[in-house]
What does this fold into?
Amino acid sequence: IILVTPHIDAFSLEGDYFEKRSLTEEGPLFYQVISADGVSLYIHWSKMMVPNSNDLHYTYYFSKPGKDYLLDIKGTLYPFSGPSSFKSIFRGEARKQVRKYLRQHRLKFREAGTGEYAGLLGFIAGLPQWEEGQ
It folds into this structure.
């Protein structure tokens, strides 16, 4: 899908919601937005066109999708790339509970679906240990 970005601010695709946001120094990008109980996850999806020298008909192919993650808790954005950096967002008992949740639900960030992310966000929102500044 190629979007005419000056004319589109948001769209839905197969039940997932995407919104144009300026969350990093890269400027406005489209992010998949998943929210639950005041906690939001922004996922920027990307693919690269890679030259294909082995095929005369198809000179390029698309790489596997890449994801960049931003977790928004109480208006503070926390970038992360996978389970280790995600757990490092939290401190003390909250980190232990997040680690336990990820292990019990066998959540793999690169393979998870919208429902799995929403469940994780709801869990995070309910953490009593989460305090401002952690």
Observations:
- The longest strand covers residues 29-36.
- The first helix runs from residue 83 to 87.
- The chain has a mean pLDDT of 87.
